Amino acid sequence: MSSSIFFKKKKRSAVLLDKHHSIRLLKTNKKRIVNKRNNKIKGFEQILVQELNDEMISTSNSTVNEISEQKGNITIEKLPVTFLLKLGKEFFSDLEAVKYYYNSNQENYYKNRSLLEETLQSSINQSSVDVQAKIAEFIANK
């Protein structure tokens, strides 16, 4: 008889714990429960941060595309050299400044960032509107 009473109390306490689980997590100071609470909070923070990043990326991409379409000019200043080389190899692989940037035998092109920027900028300005749109998207997605 006593075991059935204990079982009923255990069921009732389990139901109460399910209903008031969040309250229990907030009020306790036990290390295991505090760690659970902190992990849940971190999980929620990660989800919120990911959602905010996705929203910001989508809005920034649309505004970057609108601005680049309005201006028509794509600036490549202050971009890293490795990214400029990727851009050059992707769209303008025939340029000597892109081909020979790391070639020490070609003294004019060897690690000459200003020449690389100038040639890429002139090639971008001379390219068609479709290619410029693809380049703007490539730069926005870097």
Helix content: over 70%
SS field, number of helical segments: 7
Counting helices, strands and paired strands, the structural category is mainly alpha
List the helices and strands in order.
Answer: HHHHHHH
Output the radius of gyration: 29 Å
Mean pLDDT: 76
Distance between the termini: 71 Å
Main beta sheet, described?
none
Q: Based on DSSP secondary structure assignment, what is the total number of beta strands? A: 0
Q: Quick one: overall form?
A: elongated
Sequence stretches where pLDDT stays below 50 over 5 or more residues = none
What does this structure look like?
This protein is an all-alpha fold. The chain has helices at residues 2-19, 21-27, 31-71, 81-91, 96-99, 113-126, 129-140. It is elongated and about 70 Å long.
Provide key terms for this protein:
142 residues, mainly alpha, 75% helix, 0% strand, elongated
Please give the structural blueprint.
Elements: H1 2-19, H2 21-27, H3 31-71, H4 81-91, H5 96-99, H6 113-126, H7 129-140
Summarize the structure.
With 142 residues, the protein is mostly helical. It is built from 7 helices and no strands. The model has no long low-confidence stretch (mean pLDDT 76).
